Structure to design on (430 residues):
């Protein structure tokens, strides 16, 4: 019934008590009419006891992608169900149309699709679905909340994937798959060929030379099937926001690019997210797609507001790989006391492994250095200069112990870490 029709019906019903009780006034008539309409509308509203609500899981979606949550509502009652349905997703799910109207005849079912555009990585849930059954006049309604849980896993976007083709080309050049041949790179035997002027005499294979009566040299290629262990710091320092994302998310991007690149390069990759206990594990030793395993393991990670337990980190790495490996620590250079945690542990690991420390540098520090128009700007520039000097001192101390350092801004960290891996590969240090 249209809105104007409801007011006409209300007015007509309001005349009844006025005619019966001329001295009662119009107010009494309106009150009685409204009570009659409300009661009648509530009686005619479909009962929700026979309504069944089921949900189809939306599955996985990458950050800023789109997903659909499908609800199926079955009206098992005898009356037509005219209802408003609200699917109670968390705000970060970005539900576009969580409230919808449905009209379901008796003993029939209808589907309701809610579009989701998540704005945060991780596991996002919905616990309830609320159904409000209206009467024909929509003046009164019955309401019930159904337990109908749903889970949407929002995967890391892997924006650094765009750097992968160029890094793979460089890696293929090292392996001799492209037109460029890098002579003498690596220490893994590749093949034999005739000696040419300029070859290193130390590469001459004397046994093969004796058999062929011609000078034969060995060729080498960068090592393959090495171990790459990536440690992602999930302690309190990873919660700091740099530019438009937490430091943890930048570390995830860098870890994804390095892991995929190393796997394509023939190396075995192990990933560990750690603070005081392991938060996630993944590796190429297990069956399945490494990238799929990584994004599933990284998706629910959150920064923990606790300090990283540096003393137990070497034991965690030994549990992953007992052999010489490339160990990449994605952590902070300016968190806590690096001379008590990061530096001694990295130096200890460098005695057995090739260690790389990768850290995110806030671009705001460079901007503060340039803005010195007033006294406040000068003080901010001095503070930024001190932070940069402290980071440089920590980096110099790490390099003194044989640790490689990659200190870059958020968008530069993933490709620079990949370049470091390629340089180590080319130098035969892995």
């Amino acid at each position: 019934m249209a809105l104007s029709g409801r007011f006409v019906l209300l007015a007509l019903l309001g005349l009844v008590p006025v005619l019966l009780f001329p001295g009662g006034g119009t107010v009494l008539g309106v009150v009685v009419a409204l009570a009659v309409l409300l009661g009648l509308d509530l009686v005619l509203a479909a009962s929700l006891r026979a309504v069944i609500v089921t949900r189809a899981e939306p599955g996985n979606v990458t950050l800023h992608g789109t997903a659909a949550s499908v609800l199926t509502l079955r009206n098992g009652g005898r009356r037509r169900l005219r209802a408003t349905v609200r699917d109670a997703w968390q705000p970060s799910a970005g539900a576009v149309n969580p409230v919808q109207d449905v009209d379901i005849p008796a003993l029939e079912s209808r589907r309701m699709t809610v579009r989701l555009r998540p704005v945060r990585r991780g596991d996002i849930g919905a616990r309830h679905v609320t159904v409000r059954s209206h009467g024909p006049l929509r003046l009164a309604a019955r309401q019930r909340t159904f337990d109908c849980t749903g889970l949407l896993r929002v995967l890391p976007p892997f924006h650094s994937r765009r750097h992968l083709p160029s890094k793979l080309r460089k890696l293929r050049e090292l392996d001799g798959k492209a037109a460029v041949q890098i002579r003498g790179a690596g220490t893994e035997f590749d093949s034999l060929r005739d000696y040419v002027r300029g070859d290193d005499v130390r590469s001459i294979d004397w046994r093969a030379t004796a058999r062929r009566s011609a000078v034969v040299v060995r060729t080498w290629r960068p090592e393959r099937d090495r171990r790459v262990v990536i440690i992602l710091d999930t302690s309190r320092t990873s919660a700091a926001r740099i530019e438009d994302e937490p430091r943890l998310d930048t570390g995830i991007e860098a870890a994804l690019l390095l892991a995929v690149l190393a796997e394509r390069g023939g190396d075995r990759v192990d990933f560990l997210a750690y603070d005081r206990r392991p938060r996630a594990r993944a590796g190429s030793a297990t069956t399945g797609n490494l990238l799929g395993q990584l994004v599933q393991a990284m998706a629910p990670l959150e920064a923990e507001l606790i300090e990283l337990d540096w003393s137990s980190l070497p034991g965690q790495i030994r549990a992953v790989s007992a052999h010489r490996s490339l160990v990449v620590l994605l952590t902070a250079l300016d968190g806590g006391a690096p001379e008590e945690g990061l530096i001694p542990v990295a130096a200890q690991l460098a005695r057995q492994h090739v260690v790389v420390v990768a850290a995110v540098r806030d671009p705001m520090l460079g901007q503060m250095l340039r803005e010195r128009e007033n006294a406040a700007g000068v003080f901010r520039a001095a503070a930024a200069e001190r932070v940069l000097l402290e980071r440089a001192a920590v980096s110099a101390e790490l390099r003194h112990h044989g640790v490689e350092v990659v200190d870059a801004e958020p968008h530069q960290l993933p490709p620079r870490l990949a370049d470091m891996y390629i340089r180590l590969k080319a130098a035969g240090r892995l």
In short: Residues 194 and 216 are 5 Å apart (CA to CA).
